[in-house]
Each structure stands twice: as C-alpha cells, then as structure tokens.
Amino acid sequence: MKTLYTSTIFLFLFVFGPFANAQCSEIYFYRTNGFQSKRAIVLYQNGTQLATINAGERFKAVTCSTEALEFVVRTSENDMVPSKVNFTPEAGKNYYLKVNCAVGVEIASIKIQDAIKGKRDVNNGNKFISPTKSLSIEGSTDAQTPNPLSSTLVGETNSKSFERTQVIDNFKFEIVDIIKAGEMLTLEYKITNLAADDRRLETCANLIYFYDDLGNLSFAKQVCLANSCSSPPNWIKTLNVPEKYGCHSSVNSNTIMPSGIPLNGKIVIQDINKRAVKFVRGTVWFKSEVSYKVNYANIEFPKVVDPENANKRNFGDQSIELLAASREDNVTYIHFQHSNQNREAYSSKIQSGEVYDNLGNKHIVDGLSLVSKDKRVNYNRYAKGWDFVVAPNGSSDMFAIVDKIPATATQIRRITLTFDGFTLSWDNIDIGGSSSSQPGPEYIPYSEFETKVRNNQDVIGTKVILKNIYFSTGSDEILKNSHPQLNQLADLLILNGGLKVEVSGHTDNVGDDVSNMLLSQKRADAIKYYLIGKSVSPTRVLSIGKGENEPISDNSTDSGKQENRRVEIQVVK
Fold first, then answer.
1. Can you list the positions of beta strands (E) in 378-508?
2. Are residues 474 and 530 in the same domain?
C-alpha cells in the first residue's frame, strides 16, 4: 500500500509538473532553547522514529498528502503517557508543531501552534542553536526533501545535464536567459515562491561559483534578488572552499518573495576564460527558513559572434555590429551600430579601446562619437569611460576615433573595446573611404524618417535602410529580434494612412544571380506580409527583390558585402 501511495505521488508530480507543489504543505517541528528540561525528545509517525529533537532544534517537512497525519513524541520508549497530535493538512497551508519537555515533570508534549506565532518562533534565530534541518515524513515530497538529518541543507540538486528549471523547498528557480558578453556571463532568473505564505529568500555572492571546461574556477561578481543587489570585493576570488567562510554580510542580497508571484533574479560571473565554452558544474546558494544549494551541470555559453554576420556581436537583447572603418586626414573612424531590443533604455560605457593595424602598430582609441562622427562624447574621468545610452527598442551609431594610424595601413587587424565588465573584439576590418551607412542623398536614417512621419513632413522618394532586420541563414524566416523595428514601422504606417512604401530585398554578390534574386524577393515578401499582419493595408505595401543588382558598397571587402546585404523601404506615395 505504501509503495502504491508513493507511486501515486510521483505520478502526480510527473503529470502536473513543478506547479503541483503550490498545493503542498510545510510542517515545522520545533523546540526552543528556553527554560525547559534538556532531555531529548523522540518524534514518531505511525510507530516509526523520525528524529530526536533536542532543545534549540527545528525541523521542516514538506507533504502533498491530504490524508490525516498523526505525530507522537516521547522522552523514552517506556513513556506511559505519550503526547500526540492529529490533523489533516489543507492544501498550501503551513503547520507549526511546538515540542516541549517541562522541567521536573520530564514528560514530552507536542501541540499545533497558532500559524502567526509559530512562524514568528521558527524564524527567530535567537531561540535555536542550529539552522533548520530537513525531515522526511510519510507522504512527504522525497524528491525535493531528502532526509538530511546529518545536514542542514533542505535540497541539494545534482544533475549531469543542464536543468533550466528546478524546484526546491517550494521555490521554483528558472533560468530564463543566459547572456555571454566577452568574459562576462549573466544568468537571468525567474524565482517563484510556490508556498501559500510570503517568505524571505536570500543569496550570497561568495557562495556562488562555477567551474568551466578548462578547469578554471569563477565566482559571482554580482547577484540580485528583485532590487537587492550586491557585489563582493576582489578578495572573494582567492577563496578555494567558499562554504567554510559563510555568507559575508557585505555580499548578501535578500528580499521578501510574495506567494505565487515570480520575481527577477540575476547572477553575473566575470573574468571567464575566453577559450572556455561551458560551465561543467556550478553551485548557487540560497536560504529561506533553511539553507539549500541549486547545482548545475553543463551550462553551455551562447555564441557571441553572430552566425550570419561575422562583424556582429550578440549578448542577450543587445547587439553591436561593426559596419566600416574609414580614414579622414590623420583620423580613422570605426563605425559601429548598437541595437537594443529591450523595452527599456540600455546604458553602459566604453572604458578603453585598443587597435592593431596590419603594419604591426598598436594604437589606443582616443575618443567616441555618437550618432555622427562630429558629435564627440566627453570622457567621464570619474567613471573612467565614455558613457552612452541606447533608446528602448532602438539603435545608435557609434564611432570609435583613432588618431594617427599610418596612411600606408590598409587594415585593422584587431580592435578590442572594453565595456563595463566585458570586452568585445573584431578582426580584419578594411580601412576604406566613407564610414557612412547612408550611400546617397535619397537615404535618411530611420530616426529621421520616424520624426518626419510623426510631424507630417514630406518623405516621398526617401529611402530608409532597416538595420535591425534579421533572417535565418539562407532563409526568409524573420527572426524574433527583428520584430521591434517592424512593429515600429507598422505603427508609423498606421499613424500616417496616406503613405505607400516599397520594401526591397538586397544581397551581396556571393552565389549565383538567380538564387540571390529569389532569396531577396522572398525576404521582401516576408516583410510585406508581416506588416499586413500588423493591420497595415495590403494596398499600401509593395515588395520587390533586387538581388545583387543595386549594391551600396564595395563587394570586394567583407564590410562592403555586409552593407549590401540589407532590407530597405522607399516611400512611393
């Protein structure tokens, strides 16, 4: 019968998943360290000994059972008058069972405490000599609550494969995004308290660590729970066995977790070896009523270099593309475009930059301009960098300025920009003429086009290159990170119902003419039907594929081919 009951519990968890735990109950057994006999008390369930409870100890069990439970306490097996409690757990309700042994009488007692008082007692560390220990009872969720009477950890997950979502002690920990930028990796979480009551959760940066596939140890540089963030000092990196040092107060992050409402969390790991491709294992420490670890294995790093564009670097919902390098007099301008696909503005800074030319010379980045080459940004000496902001769901042109690259240098072999916490590099960039991405007077930037449309200014005949449009390689499938700009364009066309546009697709000269023409037509059609799907009238959107027939740059260079692969619109009415 017990085997059948256990199988039923596991079947329930399998069918309904982690959210089934929202219907479980937490049961606390506690004995304060006050004025009472120091004699040990033994806890039983159905004749089976569960634990020995000494003064100043507390235990916790999690059960999904809705059948009646009975617990008995004795000071010895020969007690003639054992004390017991009976109750039927209500789904999602917590229970607090206080155990006592009065001085002189030497008889154990157990009673169900009022929930408010019981919770206050259990959370008062001054009344106990040790952290809360986990306890397995009949009908408990054994998969989440092993029987660690020799340990203070409620749950310690172990896995040889990467588990993005884990549930421990009625907390659901879900990694929703992994962002790699240079030597920095960010794990973004959604953490949900599945219990019926609000609970405090804390974590500690110096108790979070990972090993990469090259054998290097990395610690968390920053950890956040909701709006509570902390960053450890540099000496944290020197620790070899971080658990023994405990959680230092300066690196603790904590918040109240409301019942059933997911909150954001974030762990930032820096100084990752550039040759590493994954974390083979790692540990994240959390604490609520008790402490527990969430263990991970084989967290593969996302690719920073875009698979379709070798000069584009992706990190989460951000991307930076190197468009071109150009020389004017003795000054070289290296043109980047930073795209922000987030609904909030992205702010950061470039701390420094290094450039190596094909003659073997090393140079430093002397300045930064935003929007256009002549709008230089002042160097923030206090923050040690050039600050910049990219608008929500927008993009910004940036120009790294390098003085005195020799006129005989024809290529930048490598440029490395150091941002706030990470670096990005690009190789083998030809130094050409103009770095402007607008190839003729009929072309205007998207930001100018948007402003004119909103102000009802004349835009007939103008062309706009849609720089934030991405397709699957060799396909007309529009990638998700293209949606923000297409949604903005649809809104503009709806705002001005008199505009009629032609969407044109363009390719470089790699491959045969026919294939390029077909692909460019299919991609232009895909953009057209996306806009129609956003309530733009079909009569207001034309589509045409032009293949490699209308280049705007030199196809003999990689940067030129990159500019020629594009989607643009022209206002025809």
1. 386-390, 394-403, 411-419, 423-432, 463-465, 501-506
2. yes
Identify whether residues 293 and 346 lie together within a single domain: no
**Do 295 and 321 belong to one domain?**
no
Residue 375, SS3 per DSSP? coil
User: For 82, phi and psi rounded to 5 degrees?
Assistant: -70, 155
| Structure token pair of residue 314 | 């992706």
Structure tokens at 197: 């009551």
The residue among 446, 553, 461 whose CA lies nearest residue 507 is 553
Strands (E) located in 470-531: 501-506
Q: Distance from CA of residue 572 to its chain's centroid? A: 43
Q: Say if residues 239 and 219 touch (Cβ distance below 8 Å).
A: yes
DSSP assignment string, 546-569: -TTSS-SS-TTSHHHHHHHSEEEE
The single-letter code of the amino acid at 134 is: S
Q: Residue 425, Cα to own-chain centre: how many angstroms? A: 23
- Would you state the torsion angle of the CA atoms of residues 562, 564, 566, 572, taken in this order, to the nearest 10 degrees? 160
- The total domain count for the chain is 4
**Packing angle, helices 483-495 and 513-533, rounded to 10:** 60
Q: 432, 463, 480: which is the final residue of a domain?
A: 432
pLDDT given at position 258: 93
367 and 273 assigned to the same domain: no
CATH for 514: 3.30.1330.60
Model confidence over 311-360: pLDDT tens digits? 889 888 889 999 888 888 789 999 999 988 888 888 889 999 999 998 99
CA triplet 79, 83, 84: central angle to 5 degrees? 130
Boundary-marking domain end, from 300, 329, 361: 300
Q: What is the pLDDT of residues 230-270, one digit of tens each?
A: 776 554 444 443 444 456 666 678 899 999 999 999 999 98
Residues 157, 296, single domain; the answer is yes
How many Cβ atoms are within 10 Å of 347's Cβ, its own excluded?
11
Cα maximum dimension of the chain: 101
Q: Please provide residue 209's backbone torsions phi and psi, each rounded to the nearest 5 degrees.
A: -155, 155
Helical (H) or strand (E) element with 530: helix 513-533
Nearest to 429 by CA among 245, 560, 238: 560
Which helix (H) or strand (E) is 202 found in, with range? strand 199-204
Give residue for tokens 């609550």: 145
Answer yes or no: is 146 within a domain.
Answer: no
Residue burial 363-390, b: 16+ Cβ < 10 Å; e: rest: bebbbbbbeebeeebebeeeeebbbbeb
Helix (H), strand (E) at residue 291: strand 291-300
Write the pLDDT tens digit of every residue in 114-160.
Answer: 988 998 888 887 888 888 888 888 765 443 333 322 333 444 444 46
Structural domain harbouring 200: 153-300
Higher-confidence residue of 570 and 4: namely 570
Please give the average per-residue pLDDT across 399-414, as a whole number: 90
For strand 318-328 and strand 423-432, is the pairing parallel, antiparallel, or unpaired? parallel
